[in-house]
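Methods, example record. To illustrate the input and output format used throughout this study, we show the complete record for STAS/SEC14 domain-containing protein. The sequence lines were provided to the predictor; the line carrying structure tokens was produced by it.
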Amino acid sequence: MLEVLPETQDNLLAVRVSGELTNEDFDLYRELIWDRMKQYGAARLYYEMVNLSWVKPGAALENALFDLVHGRAYDRVAMVGEKIWQKWAANLISPVKKKGVRYFDLHERERAMRWVQTGEE
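The corresponding predicted structure is encoded as:
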């Protein structure tokens, strides 16, 4: 499930994902981030993962291709999670993002939001 958080504004997309991510969730995410990229030239992303149990492989592959093509249009990206594989995923995709990806543990969510909003911790 993809939930758009109230901090979403201007070129910042803030989302929380949980449970099972579907093709529809990824379609909505790509639409929302792409709209910001087109409007502002670059988009900041706060991506929080809570109780994430499954990501459909086809949807994840489509999303990875989107990131490869549009990675330079990302500004600050904060990934917040609770599992070691989420940290590994953040490190794996970091090189394709213009400013990389910073990973924060779930208990650091406020720090992550502050960093993605202002660039300061």
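Annotations derived from this record:
The two ends are 28 Å apart (CA to CA).
The longest strand covers residues 43-55.
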